[in-house]
């Protein structure tokens, strides 16, 4: 059990057309990511600032 993700409000990208994506949950200072096909498996946790920086790089097509 993960106290951060228990009861978390997960969301998928607005670009997701199928269940072949990741889901993200946010809390103050932290973001968690999980696979939509394997929701009960491990989640990845990142400081929110790092997650935002990653998303900005993806949006600029830098990764």
Task: Give an account of the 3D structure.
- Residues 8-59 form the DUF397 domain.
- Pfam families: DUF397 (PF04149).
- This is DUF397 domain-containing protein.
- InterPro entries: DUF397.
- The chain has one helix at residues 48-59, and strands at 11-12, 22-27, 30-35, 44-47.
- It is an alpha+beta fold.
- The chain has one domain (11-59).
Short précis:
This protein has one helix at 48-59, and strands at 11-12, 22-27, 30-35, 44-47.
**Helix-residue proportion:** 10-25%
Count of distinct strands: 4
Instruction: Quickly give the structural class.
Output: alpha+beta
Tell me the strand percentage band. Answer: 25-35%
Domain DUF397: 8-59
Protein name: DUF397 domain-containing protein
InterPro entries: DUF397
Q: What descriptive keywords fit this protein?
A:
19% helix; four-stranded antiparallel beta sheet; single chain
Topology:
Elements lengths: L10 E2 L9 E6 L2 E6 L8 E4 H12 L4
Antiparallel strand pairs: 1-2, 2-3, 3-4
């Amino acid at each position: 059990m993960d106290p951060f993700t228990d009861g978390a409000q997960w969301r998928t990208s607005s670009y997701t057309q199928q269940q072949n994506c990741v889901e993200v949950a946010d809390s103050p200072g932290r973001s968690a990511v999980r696979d939509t096909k394997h929701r009960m498996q491990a989640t990845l946790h990142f400081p929110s600032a790092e997650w935002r920086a990653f998303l900005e790089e993806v949006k600029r097509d830098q990764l």
